[in-house]
Amino acid sequence: MRSIVEACDQFWTHASALLYGIGFYLGCVAALAPHVALLIPAVFLLFPCLIPGNYRLRIRLGLALATAAVSYLYVSSLVQFPTVSSVKLSGTAELEICDIAPAVRYGQVVHKIKLNLLSFKSDNGSCLARNIPCTWI
User: Fold this and answer.
1) Integer-rounded Cα radius of gyration of the chain
2) What's the pLDDT at 113?
3) Are residues 118 and 52 in the same domain?
4) How far apart are alpha carbons 6 and 114 in whole angstroms?
């Protein structure tokens, strides 16, 4: 068991950016689409913390968890997906056009438009969606 902890410590010493990147990715994915499957990489990262002895590894993994928590809070405050309802919605959308380019689809030339839905407000004034990138062909 001790050799596993030492191997993890040595690996995360040389690949600390990977550790923090995985923490950031897990936080973003948890904010956008929470699922039980996210526990698998989280348990993989936290397993060496359960073994007593190596405090440097615990500090690194704690920083990775802090990175995951910060990215979760940032993404959940920045992106809001609309809730799907059976009632037809009408309102005002604010769009930002990022790119317009010709594309070939089924042998025909069409225009591919990349845009960001900055906000969508329903007629009653409530904001239903914010900061959603989309592509329209």
Assistant:
1) 22
2) 87
3) no
4) 48
Averaged pLDDT for residues 104-110: 84
Residue 115 shares a structural domain with residue 69: no
Q: What is the 3-state secondary structure (H, E, C) of 6-39?
A: HHHHHHHHHCHHHHHHHHHHHHHHHHHCCCHHHH
Alpha helix (H) residue ranges in 1-137:
2-14, 16-32, 39-50, 55-78
Rounded distance between C-alpha atoms, residue 50 and residue 80, angstroms:
35
Statement: residue 125 has pLDDT above 80? no
Domains held by the chain: number: 2
Q: In this predicted model, which residue has the larger pLDDT, 9 or 96?
A: 96
Predicted structure pTM score:
0.58
User: Same structural domain for residues 102 and 63?
Assistant: no
63: in domain: yes
pLDDT digits over 56-77, tens only? 777 888 888 899 999 999 998 8
| Full residue range of the structural domain in which residue 33 is found | 2-78
Q: Is residue 114 part of a domain?
A: yes
